[in-house]
Amino acid sequence: xxxNLLIVESPSKASTLKKYLGKDFDVKASVGxxxxxxxxxxxxxxxxxxxxxxxxxxxxxxxxKQLKDAAKKADTIYLxxxxxxxxxxxxxxxxxxxxxxKHSLHRVLFNEITKSGVKRGLAExxxxxxxxxxxxxxxxxxxxxxxxxxxxxxxxxxYSGLSAGRVQSVALRIIVEREREIKAFVPDExxxxxxxxxxxxxGKFVADLHKIKGKDPQIGSEKEANAIQKALEESxxxxxxxxxKTVSRNPYPPYTTSTLQQDAAHKLRFSPKKTMALAQQLYExxxxxxxxxxxxxxxxxxxxxxxxxxxxxxxxxVLRDFGDKYAPKKPRQFSSKKSGVQDAHEAIxxxxxxxxxxxxxxxxxxxxxxLYSLVWYRLIGSxxxxxxxxxxxxxxxxxxxxxxxCSGSILKFDGYLKAYDQMPxxxxxxxxxxxxxxxxxxxxxxxxxxxxxxxxxxPPAHYNESSLIKELDKQGIGRPSTYSQxxxxxxxxxxxxxxxxxxxxxxxGYTVNDVLVEHFxxxxxxxxxxxxxDELDKIEEGKDEWENVVGEFYEPFHESLExxxxxxxxxxxxxxxxxxxxxxxxxxxxxxxxxxxxxxxACSGYPECKNTKPLEEPExxxxxxxxxxxxxxxxxKTGRYGRFMACSNxxxCKNTKPxPLGIKCPEDGGDIVERRSRKGKVFYxxxxxxxxxxxxxxxxxxxxxxxCDADFLVEKxxxxxxxxxxxxxxxxxxxxxxxxxxxxxxx
Length: 747
Prior knowledge:
By secondary structure, the chain is an alpha+beta fold. It contains 18 helices and 34 strands.
């Protein structure tokens, strides 16, 4: 019989640990939290120092019985839940449930699920860290107070079922304010000037206008650009100075939770939720050669610190895989310059230095392999030599007022870039940009052409999942364990939708944000939310009591809530839109109200008159297509989730289907149609689903690829390239207006 019981929260983690511990240990899983605040009531005594009431989570009674039965057979119990606030709270709840067993009980921490990591954790048993538990409890109570007391306010002013969150609502505000900034943006015109020159012994090259009378050019109109063009054409052009130097480019630090989610979104197009689910598997253990092996350290961290064994292991891997010249003289350590970093755990890094990604190809799923490759090569790169560039700048005088510059750089030693090249979708290398040779200082150059170019300033970029996480991290909103859930909640509440990877507020999102910001300005703002994170950190560090932090928050919050609650009727009325239309039942005005299915028309005389009807639907468009069920013409209608085709014989015939794009599926020849995912994101797939599973996120365009003759291209957009077309087959890229043009180069 096992003398020791180890309890963790995950069955897969339990399976991996059992392999390392053998017959002396019984390993059980709690399957996450076993107790929480009750679902259908506040569960916090606001009059008794915010005392929480915890109840057994529905369905966990059987798990608790299994844990108690196992505890009765063990001499010593170890609690090995995740090494963070959430894991500490789970351990605390388990300890309370098992308290009646009166066993010797220890808290153990596993930063990595490896033989050495498990052995080290068991050799250093601890008591449960009450400060960590209190910090988690304070967060849970604060979130419950806001959610359970502000959400009913939204129900009264908009409609039942809406939710507010202490952090999610601030994230929504960030997205809404960016969208309004984009919509209000007025572009400014500006011009750049490019010249084509040559020297006595050099061919033609391009130099750009760099300074005017020692200052940066500020050219706001074509008239100004033309005046400068004329002045340049009349000037003597002379080489003033040639500067050559070698510059170093250092690698990035290893991943934190935030930077891993950002890079996975950018390089792999993984959602934060998917990234964290895959990282959890890599941490807890995946099947390698028939055994469960933990491949990375704990994935919820805001630290870039590396332990000594990681530095030595990484150095050995660099020497083995890349050679002596790629290893720096001494290991690199990274420290965060950002305030609020807890530094409780190492950076995310590999744990098995002999298992480079290439050795696991075919053993890991495609997505696990790609994420593991990111972690591996980011960490290995962080312990490699800097990349070296030969940089040259040629300063050229045109008369007395104008300075032109031609600059370029050539990679002389790739250093850490050699590791980055092996990352999925890596684009970290810069293309060489050589400057002309055989040019000397004081040489007079020949001017061949002056090209003024018109530009307009661009609005800020829409947030995507990656840039939103970066902004939350920068502002100190949320913590590593919360980023994924914040974004998932915004999707689930229908406050935000995703279009072409952009996070866009829905009409409901705009409305909820405006109501919360107007009536709770002190609560739902970036500065206050970041300050609360600092207060939670103080609890964790033992510098403050959780009751004090919650109390200091609750007093002004409660005053705001009471004040606003007295105005709910007026607020609700202010959100109604006048229509000028008369109610056909009582003659009073019909107004636009919010309901579960969006906006609708209702009589302003409610509750005396309960007349309601849908908003006037957009005009229906007739098509030449016949309904395959009854033969009536099909029409295009607009519903909650966009446009669709419906039978004109409704309600006798209720046939509907997506609108075809006029492009055939490359797999079975069916029509490609626009669809929406369960989260409301638009994608394009075969109309013969589920028989045909073809689907793409990017909108297909009815243009053949000039390179490979593929039947269609897809629309793409990146920050650097703007809008363009890409072939899914050969990956060639084309301008958006391409119509059988030559390819611009492979992606």
